[in-house]
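Course assignment 3, question 2. Fill in each field.
Student: A.L.
Task: Predict the tertiary structure for the chain below.
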Amino acid sequence: MDSAAPMPDANAAAIRRDRNRVFWAVVGALGLVAGIWLAWLGAWLLGWDMDDLGIRPRDVHGLIGIVTAPFVHASFEHLMSNTLPMGLLAAFALYAYPRATRLALPFIWIVSGVGVWLWARPSIHVGISGIAHGLMFYLFFMGLLRRDRLGIAIALTVFFLYGGMVMTVLPRDPQVSFEYHFFGALAGAIAAFVWHTRDPEPPRKRYSWEIEEEEAKTRSDSELEMPSPNDVPVSWDGPRRQVGGDNVVPLRRDPDQRLH
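Answer field:
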């Protein structure tokens, strides 16, 4: 992979753009978290049964859950356990890869739901943890594929915080939809492979020691290069051309010599 373009020292415009990027990443993540909280609070206050909005595998009436199931949670504890990881992972993704995440997030949402509907156990599957798993795997593989400093830093951070999600894609607790976790993680990995080049690489700052190495290499290369013809000193000009005169060099010969 080609190295990123050198970056000059941060100026006011660059800092302003970065702050704007952070702002919209936080707003997007908070909007997503607010949506699942409003859905749960509305159902709790009105006494609604939200099971009809979950995914019922291989049931035509359960197809709506592909879209609505992430907003449904079985309990307040379930909602709380998903709030922080979902908000943090969404903020990381929207900040680091805003263009790719606009495509990856709906892709993870739909693909994970379709996978649960097709292959999961006969039950009601609810919660946004499948999408959280998708974002964790998405950020981790994005860092591995892009290999820029921001991507690697975020990949290491999310793996340090939520590396345990790797184990929850396997069946452990019968009350937990590991299928949702598995298909979310699979969709996140696929999204990273498909869209890891959509966002430009962040510019890289050049340090003084890098500049010194480049200058030293340039000097050594220039010493080995052949000089151009114009730089070579002329040791003999030959006969001078006379303006308006004859350019033929006379040939001296014996007058008695015959030419044939």
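Instructor remarks: The chain has one domain: 10-204. DSSP finds eight helices and two strands in the chain.
Grade: pending
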